[in-house]
Amino acid sequence: DAKTTQPPSMDCAEGRAANLPCNHSTISGNEYVYWYRQIHSQGPQYIIHGLKNNETNEMASLIITEDRKSSTLILPHATLRDTAVYYCIVRPGPISGGSNYKLTFGKGTLLTVNP
Amino acid sequence: DAGVTQSPTHLIKTRGQQVTLRCSPISGHKSVSWYQQVLGQGPQFIFQYYEKEERGRGNFPDRFSARQFPNYSSELNVNALLLGDSALYLCASSLRGESRQYFGPGTRLLVL
Q: A94 pLDDT exceeds 90?
């Protein structure tokens, strides 16, 4: 799986947009970008994933550059409950047949949302 | 629907002992993965089971073993515990071979 680079920490004011960057310059053509987050003392939670088009769901938006070497996770209106470690993971997409699909976590970005 | 459940929530053991951790996946999910998370690090992959067969194993010693039962629940066993095995052990389930995994709250193991 391709390696990712994220800043160790970021701050954001409550109500403002939080933009979390991720570099994945060695990403290959069949690899997707996944984002998970982990609120303190809980298990990781899936946020969003994408291949090359921008994606949006009820939690966040994912912007992937045209060359796919970097991406940005956007939380449009951050709340205090969004304080968490955010992990950017690059790996092959949905695989059928139960093949190994481990997630390789780095250290992630600790996002602190301030009141 | 209930999410992934794990038991126990906390556990204290001494060096050399053995421990068994349990995981119940989301109903309908046939795949279970185990991860170890030490303080300050991201989760590290230990095992993946699908349809009761081991489909992947991370870089962990043979002291770590797991199995999946016909009802798709799973157990993780760790023998001859070391102080360095102290960690949060996470279980994740998914429907089939998809990368969207649903994590349980974890079991926090402390080895003294």
A: no
